[in-house]
Amino acid sequence: xxxxxxxxxxxxxxxxxxxxPALSQTSQCTIAGTLSATGFxxxxxxxxxxxxxxxxxxxxxxxxxxxxxxxxxxxxGGSSGTYxxxxxxxxxxxSNPSTSLQGTIGIHGAAPFYRLHLTSVTGTGSVxxxxxxxxxxxxxxxxxxxxxxxPLIQVNGTNAGSQSTLNLAAGSNMAITDGGSGTITFAxxxxxxxxxxxxxxxxxxxxxxxxxxxxxxxxxxVDNNLTSTLYLRCPPVSVGSTEGSFxxxxxxxxxxxxxxxxxxxxxxxxxxxxxxxxxxxxxAGIAFRDSSxxxxxxxxxxxxxTQTLSAFYSIQWNSSTSxxxxxxxxxxxxxxxxxxxxxxxxxxxxxxxxxxxxxxxxGTHWQLFHSESRTTWFAxxxxxxxxxxxxxxxxxxxxxxxxxxx
Length: 406
What we know:
This protein has 406 residues and is mainly beta.
């Protein structure tokens, strides 16, 4: 009797462990089975499993031709939507669909629902298959790049519907470049490229070091190899000169604000009481520019022969060597500002209707200096933004500490 019981138990256990060749067996992330005609494997509901990184392994007997593919479907209220084959960059090994009589398919991605689909066959036969998958619960079982774990990151991709890729899309003032070999580069297209608090101070953003162009460089130089600042230096020009040097770049799309912080000094100014100083005021600041070369600036000026106080100016320029007129002038505010703070905070903005000029002593609390229609001076509005140095007979040194676009 004991021998008979043991025999019956062994037979039942064997029946439980050996799957029917016409069905597919499903565990949390794996599907296995046999298909003898066109059709589908069991569907894996991946909403709670978190499976990703699949490898399909299959072999056929009898068929002279076939096509097989791993498919995904979006979540449609807890049920599967319309199925489609994983494609594009999500396919990391082999091809999907595959038409080989035996082979492997590697998929790097994830989806709410997935299944294996034998789409066509020629002749009679069968296909034995296994779909291996991994999930976040057991990362040690994940595969490498030929079937790897985790979602595939694709730059500006189009496969987001399959949820097999995480598509990175550039936002405002940001460019994303896929450099290949697993390298993705992020760069600012109009504003600062560093940490918003890189100096350990609130609102500081390291200025970009590339993408600049000189207008009337003359003998000016720039050191853009520094970690977090730009250092500009312009030697003296002729006495009484009204030309400026502008280091400019493309402006972002409207609306935007450019906020800068800089320190600067002039080696020969302001003059001492017994110096015969006959030049006009020298200055530093920021400016709007358009493609024709017209400019409108916002600068801090050091005294000259016709000016006894440091001042804010906003000046319209026909070109970098020809001023047109002074739009707005305040001879008192800057004296107060320089007494209270060692850094200069200036801001210009374009809201699509007006251009705005503001100043601050801390980069947070702003005072409006001047505003006007963006087409008052520029035919179609400004398209570039710049750092400006106007030297006259003094050398101007400027360290650009922060350049932020908002």
